[in-house]
Design brief:
480 residues; alpha+beta; 6-stranded mixed sheet; 6-stranded antiparallel sheet; 15 helices; DUF4157 domain-containing protein
Length: 480
């Protein structure tokens, strides 16, 4: 193994250990609570203290959590800050459902503008748990989840092109384990006059501590998901974060609050800049999944122990018939001088990544339709002295599904203004497979794809002349 491959492997293992032992975070876009001058101080995420192993293609992804229900009491006039969060200002709530006489309990007074014990007791009761309360502390947090600073994500137009720009979402709070919640000190300042929102934030994090204490997000989910691919990691994150988003909304309903994390993440996912869409995806889609399959937070544990969905396609389309990954024989080789296959960079990205890649550059309805019928995929990484190139092989349930994805993906290329869009080609292999090639023209021209039924072979030939002809299914202006 070369040095770069060893570094990648070390990074993957290290991230996996961090997520499993470290915790979960909640990205938070403080849209409503931003300063009136429009500068949003913090993105919305909530790392949770649930073990979330990550591959090289993904760091523990989080996304923002709290928000208004369908924009009530929020100005329609909003501006976008560089980090993609809405900057709507509004008067903070003068009263609070949690601001009555303090409740006695094991959580000591942290100085937060909320009754922590009352929020915990109600959240635990909603979940039907008897888990012990965690400690709550305030610290400076610099954690960001869902970062996209990786070569293939750059080809997909999911990175920040500005100098010194960041990706992912910052954490408003983190559940570091079943017995510890840490609130970002910046969140304390922005939520100081908004006790209801602070209660919603804590309800989300307390759900994570219960998930861990009950073993739902650890022994239950980790016993079912291998977490060796981005697809399995995004499924894990969607189930963990989606459960917390759903429970936070149940908390809001029980307190008669006009707040909703589901609605907040709807707006964040739709309006976020391209480099943050990936971070918000598990919160947005996960919350909607739980809304569609559960009536009450008391049923939350059953999704982890009994009725776990088989793929992120099931998260996106809970009522779709066949969402289990198809059995497909993928293979890739490199026969071109100066190029090698980097097997440490291979990955399954999944239907949720397809949705992210399309949403970042097209209308959400396009992504909704184009992700139906996902069967399987495999990302293959190649490398020469100048950098990395990729072949992303996707397989679909029907020829129509493959065509819909190819056409939707092609439309994103014509809408992109970044230079990387011109380094991408889309090819059909058989009637149910679509291969996205990302790399220099010499790489794309020398790739031969051969696929039929449930097999797909990709070979980087010595020269373009040796490359098997394939249908190129993209606009003429991009056929290079």
């Amino acid at each position: 193994m070369n040095l770069r491959g060893l570094k990648i492997l070390t990074l993957v293992v290290g991230l996996a250990v961090f997520v499993v032992l470290g915790g979960c975070s909640m990205p938070t876009s403080f849209g409503d609570d931003a300063d009136s001058d429009g500068e949003n101080q913090l993105g919305t995420e909530t790392p949770e203290a649930i073990d979330t192993p990550t591959t090289h293609n993904q760091s523990a992804s989080d996304s923002p959590e709290d928000g208004d229900r369908d924009g009530d009491s929020v100005s329609d006039n909003k501006s976008r800050t560089p980090d993609g969060n809405d900057t709507e200002s509004e008067d903070a709530e003068s009263g609070s459902a949690t601001a009555t006489e303090a409740t006695s309990g094991p959580i000591t007074n942290t100085g937060l503008a909320v009754d922590e014990n009352r929020v915990y007791n109600l959240t635990r009761d909603l979940l039907g748990s008897d888990a012990d309360a965690p400690t709550v502390s305030v610290e400076e947090l610099d954690y960001r989840s869902g970062q996209t600073d990786r070569p293939f994500f750059e080809y997909m137009g999911l990175t920040n092109e500005s100098d010194g720009g960041t990706t992912g979402a910052a954490a408003a709070a983190v559940a570091r384990g079943p017995d510890s919640v840490v609130v970002n000190e910046e969140a304390v300042e922005q939520y100081r006059n908004s006790t209801d929102r602070f209660g919603l934030l804590l309800a989300h994090e307390f759900t994570h501590t219960v998930q861990m204490d009950e073993g739902w997000s650890r022994s239950a989910l980790l016993g079912k998901l291998d977490l060796s691919t981005s697809e399995s990691l995004m499924l894990y994150r969607s189930l963990v974060e989606g459960g917390a988003v759903f429970t936070a909304d149940q908390y809001a309903d029980s307190m008669d609050l006009d707040l909703s994390q589901v609605s907040r993440f709807d707006r964040q996912y739709d309006d976020a800049p391209v480099e943050q869409v990936y971070a918000y995806a598990p919160y947005h889609h996960g919350g909607h999944y739980f809304e569609s399959v559960l009536d009450s937070a008391s049923e939350l544990g059953s999704v982890y122990t009994d009725d776990t969905p088989p793929s992120t396609e099931a998260i996106l389309h809970p009522t779709y018939n066949d969402t289990a990954p198809s059995e497909v024989a993928f293979s890739a080789e490199a026969n071109r001088e100066g190029w090698t296959r980097q097997r440490s960079g291979d990955d399954r990205l999944g239907a949720l990544f397809v949705h992210v890649a399309l949403t970042a550059h097209a209308e959400g309805t396009v992504a909704d339709e184009a992700t139906k019928g996902w069967g399987n995929d495999q990302l293959f990484r190649y490398r020469n002295e100048n950098g990395s190139a990729f072949a992303w092989a996707t397989h679909w349930d029907t020829p129509d599904d493959a065509t819909e994805f190819a056409e939707a993906f092609n439309r994103t290329l014509t809408s992109r203004a970044d230079d990387d869009a011109s380094d991408i080609a889309v090819r059909r292999a058989g009637n149910r497979s679509v291969v996205v090639l990302a790399g220099p023209q010499g790489f794309r021209d020398a790739i031969a794809v051969d696929g039929e039924n449930n097999s797909l072979d990709i070979v980087l030939q010595q020269s373009a002349d040796e490359s098997a002809s394939s249908q190129i299914d993209r606009p003429a202006e991009y056929n290079k």
